[in-house]
């Protein structure tokens, strides 16, 4: 039996081989368990526990004992305190304790031009006060509200980080290197999710498609900045969940969605940061587009044909997903294991594959926990490669169209780079400048990261 430190090194090697284009010893496993699931698994009340965090370490510990995942299983969660302080309309805790995203519209169609002129300025001045009404007040009150929200947000970040690190070391999980993770949204999804909403964007596609195109281009620098972590690395990733693409007609996808989505993923890759893209719903009609993304993009599929995906994308990109989480509730343990074997047989040959389910189990009653654990245990024990250490299957596929385009630098009067700061404060002691620059820029970026997660 390996100790936690040895196990962590083995798991690290699995993922690094995968990302280096080498056949690993076996198929790596990345299977997330949301905070809400972990609370339910330990019989903790959802709403109260999210506020107090009482018992949360024990709940996460219990979930870690149940899983055989190689990657630390705790998934991203939203924190209630700063949302309550801000009076959030876009993220609201329901009576069941889940924080949900209701349909909202925070930008009028007549405001496209203002958004296009400078998206971040528009967010700060118009969108955020509408989504978070506690900011829609006088400057003094707004400052106090934001100060409380900022403190609350990073208190939760720190509390979870301490628990996560303890459990990672205790159970030998792998996770991305520090400073190499980020999240972003495709420009079209960004405009659809909170600014216009599902209903209004559907109308905009018909009445002002050119404005959507301009808005997507304008939002691109913001999303690239949001998706760029402090330390870009091929062993880290930027998570991008695709929302609206499959609901569009192909001609609208080609015109409105794909261009800035592609530019964003390429820009991140050129900076050394790969994207982990959750292809929500069924992306089979867009496989030729996904093929043109940078090599070793990580494509995580919800639905579709795994054989076709392996054939079209499996020699260029890293594939995961497809295992229907609902199967764990409706099928026998043997049938669940057979399904895992079927997907491994299809997707594992040649490497460039890690195992995960098609989505995370949000509620405890959405799966049979015994089946969940049995499937992951099966993958650990039955997905070893006979040709570990060899080069993974590879096929260079050239893009259909030139990708490199000039993307404007992210600029806003509400974001101050160190150079901007120096222009205002010309009396800085040159000896202190290197120390001050790093420290002050860190605080600037902390504010940016929090605000970027509010929309």
UniProtKB/TrEMBL annotation:
It comes from the Bacteria. This is Uroporphyrinogen decarboxylase. It comes from Geosporobacter ferrireducens.
């Amino acid at each position: 039996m390996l100790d936690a430190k040895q196990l962590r090194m083995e798991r690290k090697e699995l993922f690094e081989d995968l990302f280096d284009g080498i056949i690993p010893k076996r198929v790596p496993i990345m299977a997330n368990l949301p905070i809400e699931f972990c609370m339910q698994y330990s019989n903790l009340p959802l709403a109260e526990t999210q506020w107090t965090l009482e018992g949360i370490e024990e709940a996460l510990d219990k979930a870690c004992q149940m899983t055989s995942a190689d990657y630390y299983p705790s998934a991203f969660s939203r924190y209630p305190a700063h949302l309550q302080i801000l009076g959030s309309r876009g993220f609201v805790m329901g009576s069941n304790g889940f924080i949900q995203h209701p349909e909202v519209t925070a930008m009028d169609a007549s405001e496209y031009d203002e958004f296009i002129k400078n998206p971040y300025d528009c967010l700060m001045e118009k969108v955020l006060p509408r989504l978070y009404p506690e900011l829609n007040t006088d400057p003094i009150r707004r400052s106090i509200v934001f100060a409380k929200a900022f403190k609350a947000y990073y208190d939760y970040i720190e509390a979870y980080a301490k628990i996560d690190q303890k459990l990672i070391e205790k159970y030998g999980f792998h996770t991305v290197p520090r400073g190499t993770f980020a999240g972003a949204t495709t420009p079209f999804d960004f405009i659809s999710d909170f600014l216009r909403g599902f209903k209004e964007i559907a109308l905009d596609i018909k009445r002002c498609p050119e404005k959507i195109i301009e808005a997507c281009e304008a939002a691109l620098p913001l999303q690239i900045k949001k998706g760029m972590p402090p330390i870009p690395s091929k062993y880290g990733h930027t998570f991008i969940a695709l929302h609206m693409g499959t609901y569009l007609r192909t001609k609208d996808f080609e015109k409105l969605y794909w261009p800035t989505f592609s530019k964003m993923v390429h820009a991140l890759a050129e900076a050394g940061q790969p994207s982990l893209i959750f292809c929500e719903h069924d992306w089979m009609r867009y496989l030729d587009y996904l093929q043109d993304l940078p090599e070793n993009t990580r494509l995580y599929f919800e639905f579709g044909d795994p054989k076709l995906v392996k054939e079209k994308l499996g020699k260029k990109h890293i594939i995961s997903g497809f295992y229907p989480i609902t199967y764990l509730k409706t099928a026998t343990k043997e049938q669940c294991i057979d399904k895992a074997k079927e997907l491994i047989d299809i997707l594992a040959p040649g490497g460039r594959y890690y195992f995960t389910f098609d989505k995370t189990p949000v509620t405890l009653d959405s799966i049979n926990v015994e089946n969940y654990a049995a499937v992951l245990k099966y993958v650990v024990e039955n997905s070893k490669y006979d040709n570990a250490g060899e080069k993974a299957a590879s096929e260079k596929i050239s893009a259909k169209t030139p990708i490199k385009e000039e993307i404007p630098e992210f600029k806003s009067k509400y974001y101050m780079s160190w150079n901007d700061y120096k222009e205002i404060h010309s009396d800085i002691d040159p000896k202190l400048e290197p120390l001050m620059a790093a420290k002050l820029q860190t605080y600037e970026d902390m504010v940016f990261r929090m605000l970027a997660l509010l929309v």
